[in-house]
Amino acid sequence: MKDIDGEPVSALADGDISHLRNENSRLINRVAQLERMLSLQPQTGLPTHFRLELELEETIDEFRRTGDRGGFSLLIVQLGDNYASVRKTLKSSISEWILYETGCRIQSLLEPGDKIFHTHENEFVLILPRRKGKALEEFLRRLIAQLDEPHIFSGFNIAIKAATGASYWPEHGEERSAILHRADIAAGAAVEERKSFVLFKPELLRRAVEKVELQNSIVKALESAGIENLGDQFTLYYQPKVFLSSVGEGFIGVERIEAEALIRWMHPQKGFLGPDTFIPLAEETGLILPLGKWLIYQCARRLAAWDAEGRTSMGISLNLSVNLSARQFRSQDAADIIASALASTGLAGNRLTVELTETSLFEDPEATKLTLERFSALGVKISVDDFGTGYSSLSHLHRFPLDEIKIDRLFIENLDSNHQDKIIVSSLVSIAKGLGLTLVAEGVEKPEAIKILWDMGCRGFQGFLISKPLPAEGFMAFCDKVKADGMRIRIE
Ligand code: G
Ligand code: G
Ligand code: MN
């Protein structure tokens, strides 16, 4: 006997042979065990994404071979954020049980030929042959009802929100990877829009592509411009925030004007863009940090320039508010940036207010407290933006050195007709008073709202009724007009 190199092989002893046989069967068992581990999720016993890839390919081949164009729908079911928080905060046996039960609930709805996979911890994928349109809607009704049922443990109920995206084979893509991608985009849209279900449509793909393009162009704009030249593309608008001295018939008396700086992007190809389109992307990529730094400096320079032109004195000197995004706020140097912007322009700290959302305040209360104390030490004022939309506990507000609360415009919109909103807002007004905080109503669009809020004791107002956000010159013109009219603004 010769081996592959042609060298003679010495005969094997019986002992060696039986050793090799044992070794061989041990390896075969091990491979089978590894295959099982790779192909079945331990928590649910359902096939994993390895099996999905194989079986999706097989399903497509089968439909192609038989020429059956009825096809199938591919569903991606994702358990929402609250699953992640259950996992973080409760015993792991509870989150494992929720996964197991979710798998069982979905399986109970399946018919012969349907397939289910447990692809990632919080994700299930279904292949449903010939179930589209009305038939799919019917299935979804039952699926959503099943998934919405709370999970009951001794003593408490946990409701887990699920978002499902779907794509159709062959309509949305012929290839395995294409229809997985389409279903994933639909699931992403469902999560983003907080919907239980989204069916893929080409527009979603365009939006996803646009999002990536926008992201790239922010990177490019920031990289190529450098922080000094961001003003070529980005600009600040100023929305008046007024504090009233009286409310009359058809006019309001103004005691003092401040403004909130709001960023706008003059995109070379896409034109004028509002912050909602790019701030979240800038946050995701971390580009909010250089952009935010530019913003703070820009505000300080603008104020200093107005001071130098003698345009900011209206009883007391103009104050500008800057929005700090969560990531900016968490970064160690937010207070340093503000300190050096103040130092380089010679402005007093109380000329700037930072607006923070409730959620970013309460993310890490201990760290928040330290950062806010640094702002306070600079004299910078601290305002809580969009108040009422987060889950912060009112009783914790007093732990932070706050100056101002801005009531979210959701509560202001229907103040004249919605009794519940009225009750909420009036209690916010008394809490703010009790804590010695300035209160500002956001998104004021109707004169009736001003009257109601004024009667409750609210003095600060911001919204389209008073003025839209304005370019720098427009804001100065607004201030000049209010002064010329004897510190009054007509409203109707
Ligand atoms: O300006 P309005 O036009 O569309 O702003 C929408 C949202 O974008 C608001 O929630 C506002 O707080 C946020 N925003 C506006 N300007 C800035 C900014 O300069 N920095 C940050 N972080 N957010 C901003
Ligand atoms: O979340 P923040 O408060 O920072 O948001 C300010 C945002 O609110 C800006 O987008 C601004 O354009 C918008 N805004 C300001 N006043 C009004 C208003 O009266 N109505 C509506 N719908 N939006 C407003
Ligand atoms: Mn704001």
Report on the structure:
The chain is of the alpha/beta class. The protein has 2 domains: 152 residues, Alpha-Beta Plaits, CATH 3.30.70.270; 277 residues, TIM Barrel (Alpha-Beta Barrel). Helix content is 49%, strand content 22%. The protein is built from 17 helices and 19 strands. The chain has an 8-stranded mixed β-barrel with strand order 8-9-13-14-15-16-17-18, surrounded by 5 helices. The chain has a 5-stranded mixed sheet with strand order 2-3-1-6-7, with helices on both faces. A hairpin with a 3-residue loop joins strand 8 and strand 9. Helix 7 crosses helix 8, helix 9 runs parallel beside helix 11 and helix 11 packs parallel to helix 13. The longest helix has 26 residues. The chain is elongated and about 105 Å long. It starts with 13 loop residues before the first helix and ends with a strand. The mean pLDDT is 90.
